[in-house]
Amino acid sequence: MLRRTLLKTVAVSAIMVAAAATAQAQTKWDLPGAYPAGNFHTKNLVQFAEDVKKLSGGKLEITIHPGASLFKAPEIKRAVQTGQAQIGEVLMVNVENEIAVFGADGVPFLATSFADSAKLWKAQKPVIEKKLTEQGMIALYAVPWPPQGIYTKQKELNTIEDLKGLKYRAYSPATSRIAELVGAQPVTVQQAELAQAMATGVIVTMITSGSTGRDIKAWESMTHFYDTQAWLPKNLVFVNNDAFKKLDAATQKAVMDAAAAAETRGFAAAQVETEDSKAALVKGGMKVVPPSDALKAGFQKVGATMTEEWVKKAGADGKAIVDAFKKM
Ligand code: PCA
């Protein structure tokens, strides 16, 4: 009788230990993103979440919500800041109006290659980390989009003036500013609504990467892609500080290690994506062409104006980024 009771007690405590372990395993985070499930950024996020799960021994599970399904692109930063989501991914240049230094990688012709994009991120990162810390968040990793080019519909672009009067898709303050400077009509459209805006003729020209062009099947409306390689905007993955601090030390380390791996993997994937996506545009029937000298020169002039404006807006922090970048 006594033995049986003892056995029962042992069994019950075993169950309790198991229950405690499961309770610990049940930290669940939501990660809102703005880009489609098939995009290389999202695939990288999924791999990041798998790595976190593995490295944390199953203690932290991150659910990726792609395609602006949980929050719209412009709402994601605030959602993480207020703890509605624990972690998120944003296009950094979309934060520029609030924090100017987030726009460094959207300044045309400041950093136009993957090597320069990596250097710019190195210069930008300490400043971004500081700004996010002030708002109760932590930067985890950043990955660039392929270089940005100009799409047109049944229209050859020989000079920047050819954009005059066209309904033009902007995705950030800087891309709107380009429209103002060249006399195009800017309409801000985030990626989730872009396919429809293109199909319905709300826009007839846009600046983005080959990657986003491929995601929205740009060839269904657009005829030309001018490969201007004007800048490489980055997506940033960042976490709410309170959520992060609730994790035990080993799980925090798992997040940081997985983030470092995701950044390296993402930079490599972006380079593969650059070539693959342009090939997909060609396969879809589009002309993928380098810009003429005149188009390039005109665009570079716009870039020079915007660099000046940005440096003024971003003040000492902006200057520190540009100086550090130029020294690398
Ligand atoms: N794709 C995103 C941002 C930059 C890019 O290449 C977009 O067009 O919305």
For the record, what CATH class of the largest domain applies? Alpha Beta
**β-strand amount:** 15-25%
Bound molecules: pyroglutamic acid
Helix content: 40-55%
Biggest beta sheet summary = 6 strands, mixed
Arithmetic mean of pLDDT:
94
Question: Could you explain how this protein is built, in words?
Answer:
It is a single chain. With 328 residues, the chain is of the alpha/beta class. It folds into two domains: 28-145 and 233-277, D-Maltodextrin-Binding Protein, domain 2, CATH 3.40.190.170; 148-231 and 286-327, 3-Layer(aba) Sandwich (D-Maltodextrin-Binding Protein, domain 2), CATH 3.40.190.170. It is built from ten helices and eleven strands. The strands form three sheets. Strands 7-6-8-5-9-11 form a six-stranded mixed β-sheet, sandwiched between helices. A three-stranded antiparallel β-sheet has the order 3-10-4. The chain has a two-stranded parallel sheet with strand order 1-2. Strand 1 (27-32), helix 2 (40-55) and strand 2 form a beta-alpha-beta unit. Helix 2 (40-55) packs antiparallel against helix 9 (249-283) and helix 4 crosses helix 10. The longest helix is centred in the C-terminal third of the chain and has 35 residues, at 249-283. Pyroglutamic acid (PCA) binds at residues 91, 145, 171, 191, 208-209, 211-212, 233.
Topology:
Layout: H1 2-24, E1 27-32, H2 40-55, E2 60-65, H3 76-81, E3 87-91, H4 114-134, E4 137-144, E5 149-152, E6 167-170, H5 173-182, E7 185-188, H6 191-199, E8 205-208, H7 210-215, E9 224-226, E10 234-240, H8 241-245, H9 249-283, E11 287-289, H10 293-327
Parallel strand pairs: 1-2, 6-7, 6-8, 9-11
Antiparallel strand pairs: 3-10, 4-10, 5-8, 5-9
Helix pairs in contact: 2-9, 4-10
Bound molecules: pyroglutamic acid.
The site of pyroglutamic acid has 9 residues, from helix 7.
